[in-house]
Amino acid sequence: MSNNPKKSDVILIGAGVMSATLGTLLKELAPEWEIKVFEKLANAGEESSNEWNNAGTGHAALCELNYTTEKADGSVDISKAIKINEQFQLSRQFWSYLVKRSIIERPQEFIMPIPHMSLVQGEDNVTFLKKRFKALSTNPLFEGMEYTEEESKLNEWIPLIMEGRTSKEPIAATKIDSGTDVNFGALTRILFDQLEKQNVELNYRHSVEDIKRAADGSWEVKVQDLENAKTEYHKAKFVFIGGGGGSLPLLQKTGIPESKQIGGFPVSGLFLVCNKPEVVEKHHAKVYGKAKVGAPPMSVPHLDTRYIDQKKSLLFGPFAGFTPKFLKTGSNLDLFGSVKPNNVLTMLAAGVKEMSLTKYLIQQVLLSNEKRIEELREFIPTAKLEDWDIVVAGQRVQVIKDTEAGGKGTLQFGTEVVSAADGSIAALLGASPGASTAVHVMLEVLQKCFPEHINEWENKIKEMVPSYGISLVENPSFFKEIHASTAETLGLSEKEPVLH
Ligand SMILES: Cc1cc2nc3c(=O)[nH]c(=O)nc-3n(C[C@H](O)[C@H](O)[C@H](O)COP(=O)(O)OP(=O)(O)OC[C@H]3O[C@@H](n4cnc5c(N)ncnc54)[C@H](O)[C@@H]3O)c2cc1C
């Protein structure tokens, strides 16, 4: 690309929570490495990681019904819930380590305790929730979960949801107090501020336009300085593509075989937000319901207490939508530009397969505000249109690929690390469970991309994340100890946190 690119050890593309986490891990493991970050926006954490662009749920499978499925024999499969819970425990441990190291000074700026609840209506759903509760509550990771069908208890747990409820359908809920609300935007900003203090070069308003393999096997990155309309060339032995929705087009530019036959489908999101103190004060939980029939898993409706800038508000949604943009700040050409000769059949197959998703998205796009409030009234029967505003959330680019189980063009709902065989470049695709599992996913990047260092790093990783490589579900006393100590360090022990 250029005769004279500027060299560094590591280039991180994008200043979201994923690059923030990877950069922080690397600075602890290899402090002497030179790291550069390129972010096209003016600040860190402005896209999906921003507090208003996601729901801020610390996903630990404490309330999300889509992480537990009913098997053909009627029993409930909790294996995915266990996996996600264990992954969130890694995040809690790493964040606690950062608090102890004073890299994070005030954890309440980004994490707050909030009960997580599942709420269902109708006989079949109540039967399912009861079975799910039985399966989870006897598992050490979900200890403390409560279940009720009693109106008096529900009035106590969710007064706003019960007020004015006339439906005679059976209703049931589970509640666990160890849930969290996480401000991933604040976390991202804290981590990048600290990285800057540790001499990481942060280049905002710098858009990465191209990535090519250099003759020596390292990577050359073409960067547009948006402030001065100048083109720069940089080179590194390792590149992480943490561009969120923007990762797929950049991965495609690398031309690595692993980037082929992969497509992306963007799903946008809207939330309703209430800041009216009289309403906000009546609710104190994240309450997850059940996705409507035919709706994708990320459309599970939920009513959340949020803590943003030390202020409480309520969030309801998400309502899905469609724009062809891969980033909220992206271009309408993103989707079409991502269709290449090597993935066109995969994309077409997905188009044919996912008719129900297409139908669902069209219905969602056509929803009027009144219709959205009607959906909200299934949660809060007394909700008034004038108390709620609309917030446009981030874009989720769902991965489409050919899989053995699903066949050609299968839509994926998880996150996925795609890396070159030699580990010199990695990209993160997909969006769920997302930011909550950033530490787990970035540890996976380290394992895949730095096999020659991982043994020498193991002790340090265990210092930062004591349960690294250990199954917590199989070591309940270790889990208890870790859960209690991270709760203490992160200030999650109090039920009703004090806002400072
Ligand atoms: C509606 C919604 C609700 C969600 N709810 C939750 C939740 O409750 N809990 C949870 O854990 N997760 C949730 N998520 C997922 C979570 O937000 C994401 O997984 C996470 O923020 C992704 O972080 P990231 O760093 O990969 O991407 P981002 O935060 O999007 O950061 C990527 C950055 O890369 C930059 N970039 C892109 N292309 C380029 C380029 N070419 N050059 C330079 N810079 C570039 C972008 O500007 C951006 O700043 C939700 C997501 C959405 C959309």
TrEMBL record:
Keyword terms: FAD, Flavoprotein, Oxidoreductase, Tricarboxylic acid cycle
EC number of this enzyme: 1.1.5.4
GO BP: tricarboxylic acid cycle
Signal peptide residues on this chain, from the entry's feature table: none
Keyword Lipid metabolism: no
Pathway of action: Carbohydrate metabolism; tricarboxylic acid cycle; oxaloacetate from (S)-malate (quinone route): step 1/1
Reaction(s) catalysed (UniProt annotation): (S)-malate + a quinone = a quinol + oxaloacetate
Cofactor: FAD
One Pfam family named in its UniProt record: Mqo
Recorded GO MF terms: (S)-2-hydroxyglutarate dehydrogenase activity; L-malate dehydrogenase (quinone) activity
SUPFAM superfamilies: FAD/NAD(P)-binding domain
PANTHER family the record matches: L-2-HYDROXYGLUTARATE DEHYDROGENASE, MITOCHONDRIAL (PTHR43104)
Similarity-based family: Belongs to the MQO family.
Protein name according to UniProt: Probable malate:quinone oxidoreductase
Species this protein is from: Bacillus weihaiensis
Lineage: Bacteria, Bacillati, Bacillota, Bacilli, Bacillales
